[in-house]
Design the sequence.
């Protein structure tokens, strides 16, 4: 942290590595699968309280939220959305900023592919392993450590800082949606999702879909008397592949051009047929379709339907027996913020002060709560956090401890700079 002022150095050095590891292990040990986040939220509330924050616990009835316009959807059963917020300041006039983390994690999958127990976190080679360590409990603990450091500095916060822990991000963002309805918006927000400490200013989105493809049954010995739904699905799959190439080729934003595939289309589940010696008369394929920046989820759905409709018109069977497209589950919109706006510029300066290196701006091809804060909460938002997203949702998920600590220090310095007068900044 060469060249950093004494005050910024002091707040950064309040980040205690042992405390970070201890808190992260406690949080990763809780099996907070999407839809079952209450225990982890209680732990977050306890951690916030020990950090000296004013803790507010609230719940939102899911039925009420689902009746609201622009509800982003859910994919798992639940009855409520538990939200925990740790407040600091708020008595003096100034900006209101949020550090936002989702507490839910995806299932561990086949545990035989793990070399450790998914919910028994271990530290090895300066990494902490466990489900959710990367996505995104490492970021949650980094944000907690930054808030603890700001509080420990003992100086009045001219404005308000809020650490917000939300559920249901993995299946659509209903938790963040509910938090916005409760007034959790502000002048700026940072979500410490795993970005390898890059600053993400552009994120694409995604919708989930089901494609029902008809065929005509026949005895397998008389295959040509039937129409295989599998063959017809392949016609549509090729159309989706061509569309994927075209829409990715058209993307000119440098943050997304640098990605291998900013708008992927994928099929993740296929079922169909009833008997091995019968020509399949129906296939149902479920998948994910990317939402382009500048495009709403509804517009993406219409584009997908158009691709399938045009492909059906070009096939002699599907022309008269068209496939149907159903949109279901979570709907992740796209979002962007210019890198020269105050939030990314100020965060980049904090990163440079802490690391001695110029911050890198980039984009991501996955959805996040960023789009809800920007599009619905009207809150400038970026992603910036520890961890490599390539290990998220995978066996042996991990986060590097030094990245968690560096992220916490950068967030602490950013918070301090945000709440101090320009004359005090050096």
Sequence:
């Amino acid at each position: 942290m060469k060249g950093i002022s004494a005050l910024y150095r002091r707040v950064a050095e309040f980040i205690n590595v042992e405390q970070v590891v201890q808190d992260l292990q406690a949080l990763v040990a809780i099996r907070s699968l999407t839809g079952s986040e209450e225990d982890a939220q209680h732990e977050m509330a306890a951690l916030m309280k020990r950090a000296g924050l004013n803790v507010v616990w609230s719940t939102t009835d899911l039925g009420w939220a689902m009746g609201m316009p622009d509800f982003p959807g859910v994919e798992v059963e639940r009855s409520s959305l538990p939200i925990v917020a740790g407040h600091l300041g708020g008595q003096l006039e100034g900006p209101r900023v949020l550090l936002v983390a989702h507490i839910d994690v995806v299932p561990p999958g086949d545990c035989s592919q793990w070399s450790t127990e998914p919910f028994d976190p271990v530290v090895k080679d300066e990494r902490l392993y466990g489900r959710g360590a990367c996505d995104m409990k490492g970021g949650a603990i980094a944000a907690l450590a930054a808030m603890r450091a700001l509080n420990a500095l003992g100086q009045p916060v001219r404005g308000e800082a809020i650490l917000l822990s939300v559920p249901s991000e993995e299946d659509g963002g209903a938790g963040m949606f509910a938090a916005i309805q409760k007034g959790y918006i502000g002048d700026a927000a940072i979500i410490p999702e795993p970005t390898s400490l890059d600053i993400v200013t552009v994120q694409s989105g995604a919708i989930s879909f089901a494609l029902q493809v008809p065929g005509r049954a026949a005895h397998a010995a008389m295959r040509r008397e039937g129409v295989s739904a599998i063959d017809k699905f392949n016609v549509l799959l090729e159309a989706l592949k061509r569309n994927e190439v075209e829409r990715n080729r058209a993307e000119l934003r440098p943050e997304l051009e640098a990605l291998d595939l900013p708008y992927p289309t994928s099929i993740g589940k296929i079922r169909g047929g009833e008997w091995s010696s019968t020509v399949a008369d129906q296939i149902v394929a479920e998948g994910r379709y990317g939402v382009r920046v500048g495009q709403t989820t509804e517009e993406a759905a219409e584009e997908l339907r158009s691709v399938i409709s045009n492909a059906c018109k070009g096939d002699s069977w599907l022309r008269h027996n068209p496939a149907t497209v159903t949109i279901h589950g979570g709907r992740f919109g796209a979002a962007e913020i210019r890198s020269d706006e105050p939030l990314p510029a100020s965060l980049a300066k904090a990163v440079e002060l802490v690391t001695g290196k110029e911050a890198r701006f980039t984009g991501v091809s996955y959805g996040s709560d960023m789009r809800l804060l920007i599009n619905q909460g009207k809150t400038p938002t970026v992603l910036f956090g520890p961890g490599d997203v390539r290990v998220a949702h995978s066996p042996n998920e991990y986060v590097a401890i030094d990245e968690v600590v560096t992220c916490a220090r950068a967030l602490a310095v950013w918070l301090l700079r945000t709440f101090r007068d320009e004359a005090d900044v050096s």
